[in-house]
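Hey everyone, long-time lurker, first post.

I ran two proteins through the pipeline my lab uses and got sequence/structure pairs for each. Pasting them in order. The first:
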Amino acid sequence: METNTVSPALAGKGASAQPDAKETSAGRVISSDFETFLKMLTTQMENQDPLNPMESTDFAVQLATFSGVEQQVRTNDLLAAMSGQLGAMNMSDLAGWVGMEARATTSAWFDKTPITLYPDPASGAERTFVVVTDGQGTMMDRVEIPVSDQPVQWAGVSALGAKLPAGQYNFHLQSLSNGKIIGDAQIPVFSEITEARVEGGQTILVLASGAEIAASEVDALRKPPEAP
């Protein structure tokens, strides 16, 4: 894939065969409850009114009800065990993400090294402009680029030719048609992942810019480019 340069502003562990203590305890409880249920059912049959005995279907309903509860308990225990295993696996996998660069629609940290942008012009765009703002939302640059989805590089130089300081920057692509803006979308960038954690069942990534994003927002991963 060709990269355009615009100047000066845009240049585990396997499953165990032995059940854990929790699962064993749950199995014992189910077994104990089932024995109690059978004793109660036997007592009920022995003491029923001979002139008005219970229908066999009533016994079947009671047995089916207990069986359903038993299966639900086992299912819940199984899901809890699977959740724990998946959580451990995810954390193990995420450890390899730290230090990688993730591409997502977020801000980027500029450290005097050119930043590659991945524009996506709106359909029908006749002209496109990259708008650069700092961490406070102040516009630092606005420069026209070709109407294309080819990546471009931002060299960190303002429209006046001044070298901008290191810091957090946001990039938006304005698409114009007939002199009117028909699209204004933030441009995806690559940022280094400095931390990965799980919160409320969701994987959160912390980027070098300080921004936090969900792992589901990442559409590409790569190794950091080697320093020249």
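...and the second, right after it:
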Amino acid sequence: MSAPFFGDLAPIAYAGPESRSPLAFRWYDKDRVVLGKRMEEHMRFAVCYWHSFTWPGGDPFGGETFLRPWMHGADEMALARAKADVAFDLFRILGVPFYTFHDRDVAPEGATLAESNRNVREIAEIFARKQEETGIGLLWGTANLFSNRRFMSGAATNPDPDVFTFAAAQVKNAIDVTRELGGSNYVLWGGREGYETLLNTSLSRELDQAGRFLSMVVDYKHRTGFKGTILIEPKPKEPTKHQYDYDVATVYGFLARYGLEKEVKVNIEQNHALLAGHTFEHELAMARALGIFGSVDLNRGDGINGWDTDQFAMSGEEMTLAWVEILRAGGFTDGGFNFDAKIRRQSLDPEDLVIAHVASMDVTAKALLAAAAIVEDGDLDGAVAARYAGWDGAEGKAILAGERSLEDLAARAEAEGLDPQPKSGRQEYLERLVSLYH
């Protein structure tokens, strides 16, 4: 590429709420302190490599629309190096502290596994230099175990143990690279860990295979001294008919079965929550309740299109509700907001990619301010606490502590002539309360 892809775009600056420039932050002021932390530390924004620099703009009914200069040429490694330059230029323009990648996004697949691994490592060396130059870090890495035809029947859950072995080798290299680049997490996304039909599927075998694979990953993490968090990303369907990591609750049940509930957390995506029939805030709340909240893929789905549209998050109301749950969970530690989002295939200009990130960062920042005000004011949490106040009393505590039997409760109900009456849940009042903040 003879000229920088983004031209002479300067780093995006904070300009305040009065600004109307699409290339300025109105709400994201990274140094603003909210609830005792800088906004940048709350957000931990990361740009994803695959949608931003690898996706060509295709959909199920049409091919490439973007025609990016690093996507076409005979020397694939030269293109990969050029793509790395463009990627870090965008990270610099946006001022994000992190990025994320799949191994197959950053470097082409070779004729052999060894060649593929060498390709990834060559680009990882470029990443290491650029990280040192810019101060930008790796939020997480992962391995693409779904694009190659060998994974058409899954990776860890494949009926062929040789595919399982190949996947293990690919994951080992991706974990090694993630560790060497100082990654905060490693993600396992089971894109094809599911089934199309039960006619050719042994559920028990495949679940045991997935449990063994994840146990091996956790063991390897500890043996190699990787300090990051291992994450699973729940997704219910697409491309397979039914995926084993359907939603947060399903993932927790899987982790508990194989004794991994203390070792692995979840990376939650709004679009996947929608496909599972949940809301974004439900999945966040469930992860918090189960103690496995880890990180977030920041995007949104389309309520009409029943597939993974991966649009940039632009709903202030939705993000406010999500932030309330994240703050209740104590905020991010190793995790963060990864922009697992892609611009629409009609958004052809380089500037469109920048504006999409800027706009979503602003929406997320404004939502943080709203959620922080909700948490600080305490009215919402107070209403919830009041609703469950009886469980904080002596009798409620005794029941939960196992100090009452079924016979004890039956005897008390009869002796005291209990006739409890329902109390209003005040849903509309609480919805109005939340609406006052955003």
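Reply from user beta_strand_b:
Welcome! Quick read of the second one: The mean pLDDT is 96. The radius of gyration is 24 Å.
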